[in-house]
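[audit] Reproducing an earlier prediction to check determinism. Same input, same settings, fresh worker. If the tokens differ from the archived copy the diff job will pick it up downstream; this log only records the rerun itself.
[audit] input (260 residues):
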Amino acid sequence: MNSKAPTPERNGGPFCCTRYPGHGISLCCGQRDAHQPLCRQALQSAVWRHHDLSLAAFQASISGGIAIGAWGWGHLTDYAGVEIALLTASGLMLISPLLGLWLTMPRVGARNEDADVLADPEVKLSLTGRSGPLVVEIEYRVSQENARAFHNVMQHVQLSRQRNGAYGWSIARDIADPELWTERYHCPTWFDYLRQRNRSTQSERALHQQAIDFHIGPDPVRIRRMLERPFGSVRWKEETPDRGGAEVLPVVASAAGSST
């Protein structure tokens, strides 16, 4: 069974604390240690251990259901006989499709959620399709009276970003400027980011616009798109071959498309 690890939320400060929403895991280590392989391995091992426990509980519930069913049908057979047990099981199987009249599935294509394709954002750095990871930061200025409502909307924005391929999502509030909020998330590569922008449905575009509507001030929402440079990713020697050199994308002179 293929499974995907949950997305962590990280808080800064003297310690690096990582919280996995919905999984009840919170781990802290020194901020300097958070960038060391041993600490990262410990965080990853903890979440995968919790993930394995969830899968084990799921499989145990299936086995338990089978055991309870076997016990129930066995008692019915002892009490009423094999013929009655088989007739009862057959009757329940014939009645079960009627549940579809009550527990209906949504119609496929009932709503047209196709959204317009967005133009690529401004690029002044030579990129390849596999350049990454990409970090996106969006700054909102929200009045303190609307802080709670804005935070509630951003929880839904988080699910939208993650559904479309983003990871490492977080929302932070400036302690020196309480009206300033920063949304931050990652995309594995430049092409993944472009696909992530155009996977949004009309409902998700409306949700993103709802978050932008909280923004106040004369300036629009500020967006930063940055190419993350982990240790060892930069080629310091000119003679080092670059296999992606032939894939360099053209530079776009002007901005276009959505703000995110």
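[audit] rerun output stored. Observation attached for the diff report: The first helix runs from residue 37 to 80.
[audit] end
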